[in-house]
Here is the input.
Amino acid sequence: MVFAIGLRAGMAVLESGKTQTRPGRRSIIYYLVALVLVSVVPSFIFAGVLIQRYQAAQEDTVETLIVATSRSIVQAMEREIAANITTLRVLAASPSLREGDFEGFYDRTKLALDETYAHSFIVNPDYSTFASTRVPYDSPDSRASDADAAQKAFDTNSVVVTNLVFGNVSKRWVYNILLPVDLGPYGKKLIALNQQADNFASALSSNSLPAGWNSALLDNDGRILAASAGVGNVGEFLTQFDPLAQRFSTGWQHIETNSGTALGVIQRSATTGWRLVAWAPIWTITQPLITAMMLLVLGGIIVLGLIVGAMFWVSRRIGRSVRGLARDARRLGAGEPVLATSYPVSEIAEVSEALAQASLDRQTAESDVRFLMREVAHRSKNQMTVIAAMAKQTARGADDVQGYVQAFERRILGLARSTDLLLTHGRAGVLLGELVESQIATFSPDDANRVKVQGPSIRINAQAAQIIGMAVHELSTNAVKYGAFAGDQGSLSVRWQIIDETLDFVWRETVAQRLETVERTGFGTTVLKSMVGRSLGAEVQRLCHEDGIEWRFAIPLPAVDPDHAAAALPEEAAAE
Here is the structure.
């Protein structure tokens, strides 16, 4: 039942929250509903099974209690009968009775029973009675109320407990206990003890049954000796059902009553044959289970409704967040900027932040690409001019075509290495150390100890990288021809540092023999003095020492700063 209600509630939510999805796909709310049904419904089913098991245990407990209580009532009644029989045997042993002094017996018996509800009388074989303690001794004889029981006592010579009878003397519903005695010359008599039937009401009240249960103590004719309230009066027949048609049982049984099926226990007294009947409508037994199941169903509906409502609210928020991510992803795919959104779900917000970062990275990458393309276009024009100047200057110092071609190729390759570093690092700039090492590497001797390059990590912009790269290339070429790399003993030290917003770059060659001081005016000198000095606003010095040559470049930092170049790029592009 709970599963069906939950399923209908879930389907209602699904219909109300239905979104347009492609065939074969389901909205997140479908999976949330399935999760709720899979996790909650089995819990209710398990709770129902536990309640049913608990009810069964409670029924067993109640059955044990009813059987025990019924047996206690029967035992209390049997103890009362046994006590009366004992009293009767004591009276029968009276000497006055054995001597035929019936009046003396009457006096002694009346005195003995004075503070009890019991009375005594004597029954003759003709069923006449006399010496009844209810009336004076000389009162007229009367007839026994239950002649059949009296005859049975005479015949069997044993104690007989009568069924319920309406006393001829007492005019009340009573039962008699008949004890046969043989008085010799006075004949066979029955000594009878007479008790009111309502004495057994105390046994029923002292052994009370649970609420909703009825009980009745019945004689062998089915008359009520004692009963709980509302069942019937003493001496009446039980009208709710036929108790004599029911079998005796050690446990409870189903009984069809006038008001429906009931569960009952029927106990029989071995002493009197009377029976104790205890019963209750079956709904009294099952009501706790029905109430618990109804509360479970009601609670299940409420809890499931709250869960489904909360689930619907959560699914709506997650759905909106996921659709927002989808829109961000489409904008990212289209190259549009994506901003991080503060979604209520931390994981989705994290994805949104990742998309925003990816958008920023993409824009940065695209900006770098555009920068490099503009830079390549711009620098290619400059390189054409530089190459043309290189060709002219190389031609001036060449003695033959082959020497011209070799010198020109080396300068072109040096320019290409600078360009490779520019394209590799892009707008971030070229590391000065990498630029110097890449230009010197082609000319360096096998002994690595002859070359020392040191300085802090500094990035320079593309223009500065081209110019400084060509300058280092020319210095390396001169070192091979005339300086540190010309022999086996020379060494080269390249170092730089930052001093007062100026890049101090020093090229120091050391040779074994003194160099001749010759001022060359070839392409190398043009690059070192004209291009570096004019293009970068640098101070260029050429110092000759006894053991080698030294070049010093004092370059203003703004001229090599990558950020300065990036900021100036839009102006250059506009100027073009």
Summary: Residues 28-299 form a domain with the Beta-Lactamase fold (CATH 3.30.450.20).
